[in-house]
Amino acid sequence: MGGSGGNLSMSIGERAALEDKAKTIIRDGAEPERRNVFLSFASEDLQSVNLLRGQAKNDASDLAFNDWSLHQPFNSKQASYIRKGIRERIRQSSVTVVFVADKTYSSKWVNWEIRESIKLGKAITAVHSGSAPPSRLPTELVRNKITPVRWTHEGIMNAIDRALKEKKGRP
Q1: How far is CA 111 from CA 91, 117, 118, 120, 123, in A?
Q2: What is 34-169's CATH superfamily?
């Protein structure tokens, strides 16, 4: 006598649990991978950056990242204290995204955050709004040959993925 394939009958509860597990696997596989991102920007661009943050939180958006940047400026005039706090946020991130606008090039903090990201071994990319990047870019972007991409959902995610892949390829 041959053996049977086992008991194929399931209780309603077991079937529901199995269906829920399958739905979770399908849903998780279809969602984009979330990245831990540090957003570097000049303080005068906070309103534009908050728009980017809002788009990333929109459930209908395919832009998927966890924002590890500062939402509120450090309440201190002490540069070393501020650097320590920002350094920790960069350390928690996998990639630094630099938002560039017309006056970003003159921000000492943005250039420092780019240098610090490099020291900590983080991938870096840059984004701009509008049809073309600003004519002047932060010195550290130019020095490290990082060209800003246009701020679109697809553009930002592709730039983040590309920066992470390039970083993995470096020694």
Answers
A1: 16, 10, 11, 14, 15
A2: P-loop containing nucleotide triphosphate hydrolases (3.40.50.300)
CA dihedral 43, 46, 48, 49 (to 10 degrees): 100
The arithmetic mean of pLDDT across residues 137-146, rounded, is: 95
Query: Computed from CA positions of residues 134, 138, 143, 147, in that sequence, does the dihedral angle turn out positive or negative?
Result: negative
pLDDT, tens digit (0-9, with 9 covering 90-100), for 21-69: 666 656 555 445 667 888 898 888 888 888 877 776 665 555 556 555 5
**Domain ranges for the chain:** 34-169
> Band of the pLDDT at 6, cuts 50, 70, 90?
very low
Cα angle value 163/151/54 (rounded, 5°): 105
Could you tell me the pTM of the whole model? 0.72
Are residues 84 and 112 in contact, defined by beta-carbon separation less than 8 angstroms?
A: no
What gap in Å lies between CA 136 and CA 147, rounded to an integer? 12
All residues at 6 or more sequence positions from 40 whose CB lies less than 8 Å from its CB, including other chains = 69, 96, 97, 98, 99, 109, 110, 113, 114, 117
- pLDDT (0 to 100) of residue 76: 52
Residue 72 is given by DSSP the state: S
